Amino acid sequence: MSSKISKKVYAAILATGLMSFSGVLVETAMNVAFPTLMREFGLATNTVQWMTSIYLLVISVVVPLSAVLKSSFKTKQLFICANLLFFLGLLLDALAPNFPLLLLGRATQGLGTGIALPLMFNIILEQVPAEKIGFMMGFGNLITGVAPALGPTFGGLIINHLGWRYVFCFLMPLIVLSFCLGLYGIQQKSPIVKITPDLLSIALIAILFGGVIYGFSKLSSGNLQLTLLPILIGLAALGLLLIRSKKVAQPILHFEILKNKSFSLQLFGFLLIQLCSLGNAFLLPNYVQMVNGGTATLAGLATMPAGIAGALMSVVGGRLYDEKGARLPIMTGVSLIVIELLAFACLSGHMSNWLICLVYIIYMTGMGMTIGVVMTNALASLKPELSAQGNAFLNTIQQFAGAIGTSLTSAIVAFSQSQAGSKGPGPTALGTQHAFIFLAILAVILWLIFYREIGTEGGAK
Question: Does the keyword Iron-sulfur apply (predicted)?
Fold first, then answer.
């Protein structure tokens, strides 16, 4: 294979990346709109949260199917389907007269994102020369990594000046651009082998993620029955899915790859990184608004520089991986993650917006440097024919972490608030500190995992 990356490959990665970017941007932008939606449709907080939950739930069910879809359909067919579904979801939400139709639009967007997200990484793994995979994985993460940084600010500005419906309208041209780039650039490189998906396995995946996401969403309610019962049902579905995967000829998820110790450890590390990232993304904007008395737009502006730094560092991490191996970018990045979380665990009783902005840059620099390299290095530990399955596991874990990360940290804050009998600045700051102590413990575990796996080696290539 030539070491040169063609214009069509760049266009294909950008096309699929723009869809993932749009999915994350609308998710983070609409979080700012929750109070507006609650007033307009007469909703409670736990109801409006389904704007995010339904989206993540649909993605979590679709992403595990990515290896089967990739094998059974042409890449361009999948992309066109994903793009049209996402555009339809945007149109539904822009015109929705009521909340149920708004949820239907979000679910339709989830279908599109769930198909498109693994496509980008599969294209990189198949069509990029081995010596440049790290760089292009970083480039792919750069496209999607900018979205969380821009989302809250973009959402705040649009909602305050034009109204929440325009969040969806402004994304439509991006999806049209993505469609045109995909038609030009996406090529078929792998043979088509039709696989009939096992419907029972799909149902079990839906029950697994539906139960776990619903259970974790109820953590802050303090109702143990509402929390534990759905999670237990989800775990029971996971057990049945494991049994089912051994009985069918073509399982949707090949759990045998988890016997690969290196892949499994890095998959768990990937989960911890995502949990810490989602925890930060909830705690810091919440702190700016509830403790420091800032607006939603100010909260977005305070976290935006860090998000941009993280997106840019994803390319740096990828290039370091190509030139030096996994050890340098991963251990440097994870060390920065630990430093940030320990700092916030100590300082979060009293933090100015400037302090939040500056310290958060440390975290996002580390996360950006690490996240794409972990994905690349984990997949490098598998046989090439298993890379699509490995990609399915990584993207599934990413969505799972997204669904539970906010719930865990918000539950810790809510517990401190309930103990104090107030949601004022003091109890919120205390709860935030407790949440950061929890995340710091996870970060230390993360550091130990990667130090044991690659800390004394050059890293798999």
Answer: no
Measure CA 201 to chain center. Answer: 23
- pTM of the predicted model as reported, rounded to 2 decimal places: 0.82
Q: What's the Cα-to-Cα distance from 8 to each of 11, 185, 186, rounded to whole Å?
A: 5, 4, 7
Residue 295 CB coordination number (10 Å): 13
pLDDT of residue 389: 83
Apex CA 229: angle with CA 227 and CA 234, to 5°?
100
Is the domain covering 257-453 a CATH 1.20.1250.20 domain?
yes
> 179-238: per-residue pLDDT in tens?
999 999 888 777 777 777 788 888 898 898 888 878 877 776 667 777 889 889 999 999
Task: Name the CA radius of gyration of the chain, rounded.
Answer: 21
> Is the CATH number 3.30.300.230 carried by domain 1-195?
no
Cα–Cα distance for residue pair 284/265, rounded to 1 Å = 29
Work out the average pLDDT over 378-387: 84
Q: Write out the DSSP string of 151-201.
A: HHHHHHHHHHHT-THHHHHHHHHHHHHHHHHHHHH----S--------HHH
Structure tokens at 20: 């993932």
Separation of alpha carbons 316 and 371, rounded Å: 11
pLDDT for 421 equals 72
Amino acid at 52: T
Tell me which residue of 461, 421, 402 sits closest to 113, measured CA to CA.
402
461 pLDDT above the threshold of 60? no
For the CA atoms of 205, 208, 209, 215, the dihedral, rounded to the nearest 10 degrees, stands at: 170
Amino acid identity, residue 122? N
Q: % helix / strand / coil in the chain, to the nearest 5?
A: 85, 0, 15
CA angle, 178 as apex, 175 and 183 as ends, to 5°?
130
By C-alpha distance, which of 20, 56, 40, 303 is closest to 156? 303
Report d(CA 460, CA 449) in Å as an integer.
Answer: 15
- Helix 327-347 to helix 425-454 angle (10° resolution) is 160
CB 429 within 8 A of CB 348: yes
227 vs 415: CA distance, rounded Å: 14
Cα–Cα distance, 453 to 263 (Å, whole number): 10
Query: CA 63, 69, 73: angle at the middle one, nearest 5?
Result: 150
Q: Which residue type, as a one-letter code, is found at position 317?
A: G
pLDDT in tens, 32-59: 777 788 788 887 656 777 787 788 788 8
